[in-house]
Amino acid sequence: MSRTVLITGGTSGIGRAIAEAFIADQAEVFITGRHPDTVEQTAKETGAHGVVCDAGSPEPVAALADRLGELDVLVNAAGGLPEAASDGLSPLDALLAQWHSSLSQNLLTAVLTTASVQEKLTGGGSVISIGSIGAERRGGSYGAAKAALAAWNASTSAELAPKGVTCNVISAGFIAGTNFFQGQMTDERRAALVAETHNKRVGTVWDIAQTAFFLASPGARHITGQTIHVNGGAFTTR
Q1: DSSP assignment of 106-145
Q2: What separation, in Å, do the N-terminal and C-terminal C-alpha atoms of the chain show?
Q3: Cα–chain-centroid distance for residue 224?
Q4: 12-21 pLDDT, tens per residue?
Q5: Does domain 4-230 match CATH 3.40.50.720?
Q6: What keywords appear on the UniProt entry (predicted)?
Q7: CA–CA gap between residue 106 and residue 140 (Å, rounded)
């Protein structure tokens, strides 16, 4: 039977790769994004259902949930670096805006979306959230939000596991093919990140997509409440 999959932040990078992995398995996939043009284009190119939705805002998230019937897999892939604060703010106000942005994008998107659809998740379903190696490293407000994501995941797993739903975080290391670094990645920084891995290669969006696909498979039913590190062996304690 075909599964129904919802992927927030599914228009590019990791989210899109995960969508394509499930579509290849004949799943009915819904992807969300904040920008109508990219949602429409990605839906057309992949065959997914595109929904314009800011996953960090309650009203559009509730409207999204109302569109869905039973749901087999939820992937919380929405996230990113904090948006720049408006000019003219005091240093403390700018700092607060930065932290609000990080928490909204990387934690609250998952919290709100999961809460809105959890009653629709079927027994044998899965919630998968995309974390980051930044949670264990010098990730600033972004890393702190991803660390909070892991803590939230553990409590959500305890809540949903009796209903037959697994909940896990994939903590991604350096992954090429995303918009995360916003064009600021230098050759030197790239080389340093690769050098930290044990297998001496760049991570790809497909590394994360295939991990997500496994976590939603019958072979992963006893894996829940976990943070799965996918970083090629990069050190996580610096």
Answers
A1: IIIHHHHHHHHHGGGEEEEEEEEEEEEGGGTTT-HHHHHH
A2: 45
A3: 16
A4: 999 999 999 9
A5: yes
A6: Oxidoreductase
A7: 13
